[in-house]
Request: fold
Amino acid sequence: MISPKIRAVLVKELRDLLRDRRTIFAAVVVPLLLWPVMMLGMSEVAQMAQARLEREVYDVAIPPGTTEFFAMLSKLPGAEEDSREAESGEPAAEEPKAGVPPLMKKKTSSPALNFKSMADADAEKALAAGAIRAWVNLPPDIEQLIKAQQPAKVEVQYDKAEERSRQAAGRIEKLFERYKRHKVDENLKSRNLRREFLEPFAVTLHNVALAEKVGGSLLGAVLPLLFIVMIITGSIYPAIDMTAGEKERSTLETLVGMPVRPIEIISGKFLAVATLALGNAALNVASFAVTLLLLPGLKAANFQLPWSALPLTLLLLIPLALLFAGLLLAVASLAANQKEAQVYCLPIYLLPMLGMMVVTMPGIELEGPLLLAPVLNTALLIKELFLGHGTAQQVAFVFFSTCLYAVGTVALAARVFAREEVLFSAQGSLRLFLKRRFFKPALHPKPGDALLVLALLFPINFYCQLALAKALLDPAAGLRPAQFSVLVLVPQYLLFLGLPLAAAWYLKLDFARTFLWRKPALSGLLGAACLGCGSWLIAQQLVSWQSHFWEYTPGDMGALDKALVPLLASARGKVLMVFLIGLTPALCEEHLFRGFLLQGLRSSRKWLALLSVGLIFGAYHFPLFKQPVVMLLGVTLAYVAWQTSSIWPGVLFHFLHNSLSLLAPAALSLELETPAAGKPLPGVPLKFLVPAVVLFLAGLWLVRRARAKVVNVPSHASGI
Amino acid sequence: MIHVRELTKIFHTHQGQEHKAVDGLSFHVGPGEVYGLLGPNGAGKTTTLRMLAGLMQPSSGEVQIDGVSGSSDPLALKQRTGFLTANTGLYARLSPRETLLYFGQLRGIAPPELKAQAEQLLQLLGIRSYADRRCEGLSTGEKQRVQIARTLIGNPPVLVLDEPTLGLDVLTNRLILNFIRQAGQAGRTIVLSTHHLDEVESICQRFGLLHRGKLLAEGTLGELRAMSGRERLSDVFLTLVERVEGQSVMDSISLAQVGPAPQAGTVPLSPAAKGSSGSSHDLS
Reply:
């Protein structure tokens, strides 16, 4: 899979880095020592501090003449239990709060309060000076007032900013609570009443969460940030060392003088950084987990690691590590030296902080725009997984989008790396890197450019569609043709067609070559027509087979399909729908996927390029259920463009496929309507399926024959 | 072997101005020839050699090595070229043997052949005794031997040497000059740049005198002497510059030293800064 030259760069970089003591320290020693020292140490210190606070005796001011009253209070039975709950007022058995190690909440008892009789003015001064911890103000004849059932007010003055003062106030409050209960009991007894007269029922809270879920909620709040920070920590030094460091040590000139493409150099370096980042993250997680297991008293606190979430979490971390590796390499490559690179990379540290703020906000869930927000979506999904939530759709969204972003960052890094202004300039090179007039004209995009545009387009398209749907769609009013037209036309023409055209202009590409604007061979057009006439039925059959083992849930798309039915009733509606669903995607998507993207990947192996185009084409088409079949169609469309070296047969194929899927079922009286959720989709009768397969195969045969003799002019400059 | 046609390189400064570092340069180097590209700092030597070695793309014009165009197939051009400068670094944490194997892999040499080639070079250049020590612990001379071996791995037919002796001590200097002489005798095509003119008088068969990005004159030492009526190469150069500039060379040189800022893409090194032996024949 990896070319020998990429492997050579990867092995060399790993060997070079692992021989560096700084890397070993940052990647191995820090994680192995950090967590045990930090968590065990912190826990010990917190316990010691807590125990000391609880053992301490606090001075409390009381009004003159009440000494005996307070002495009586202290002697009341039940002081021991009360004091355990004294300072915070929460029940002792309550589950630990998220993010706080359970041991830090363990309490020991010491009810001691030292009452000092003082005048009001003195007490006020003493409290302000910290000589006493609290001051109780009550009528000296409080006992008589209570006996006469007159209102009696007890005021406790304390300093909330002081821990000791808070503790003292808590103890006093408990003391009076106990006295109140004692008095109530006395009153009830004198009237021959039971306590149930006052408290007819009791409410007890029972925690039913499994130990794993408790652990999950705790870890879900902490781990996403931990993983992200560790991935960056593991990547940042190697990324800077391999790029700006090489420039500084003057080894880069020798390296780029070798017969290796910039994309191969950057890929090797990228894999090395990602390997170290992942290794570092895994080591940190392991060290964290072992430390948690070693912490005494975890079982008592109903805590267990949620092991079931770990495999998916690790799967999600792979594209995240790749994303950061690519991003850091791209940014560090722009710098002339290591110091400059550190400054450039600093903002990347801020991303996980932002992520942590979102993750810890109550009620924030992984939905809507957050699904595609880079880094944040992974952080939120890890949190969900640790709580035992998270759907396959969410995992797919997050995984695919992060993969695409990672590809985008690598493409960006390769683009930076391929620029001689960046390699040889001793000054900051960002401006030179972006200015169009420094670009050289080229025949078609480089792979890095093509992938970068696709990676950028993915979230832009998602957010654009989301915003349009929010602004235009009203579920109650139904779907009107004008709204649907805007929903389709804006993303298609502005993004799928407009963006690659703009990118081609910006990069000074040859439009005819990039978008394959050339006259196709007749056999190519005929083949495409056959493919389009057959593919829609085959696709329907494949989806039907798939629905037997993958349950189909119509979701939003199903609602949209239903909303389209009335539009298809009139002839005018049909024309509009053919334009919107048949012609527009055929024209725009072909320019993006089979034009800009496929031509960008032309320098790679044929089937690798075709498969990549199919995969990315599929990833753009949600829902997840439809993606496998759309991917196959994408590969076929890419094959048509490759064979015919023209965009037009693909446009025809795509147009026929979409239009026939829309109109033909009714014309052929085919029952292909969306069934209820959970039921398999209907298959295609053999009398239709067999001719469709024959047409499709004939189309492939014709397209294969159409292989035009296109002179492959090698790309200008050291293509990446 | 090497055909350079109308080679031009334009750099863009951060202020958006254009600067022609190499201006319509054309020359030809035959197989097995050692060609010296001479000129003061800022003449465009490094930029020219970087384009010859495929490290930079020309703004216009073309470099062809062994029939391969650098513009259309830069990788094939690099495959045929070994590039060496005095100031390129080695990977400090790799050993000389690992360095050779790494660069051999990048040149796409098959493993058994690569190992044999590396061993042969280690033996030939006397590196074997320290072949497994890390490069960070080697002396300057030892490092230069490793650099030479690194340049020769893959047996490229063309060597492009940019100021290969700049800033080196006497012993290492001699090592490099001997290497160039032997490589030339072994039939490799070599283009080297220097402003230490006396060093290369006896090594190069032909010279190209470069001034402000243009080729001032070209020929064998005898032809250049006849052209200028001067004996020493440095005097030849100064006389020819005077003819073109129409003013005293000393004026033009002093202007060159205080005038324009170093160009982007060049290596603005002066011998004084690098502790050069400061020969009277130096042009900078």
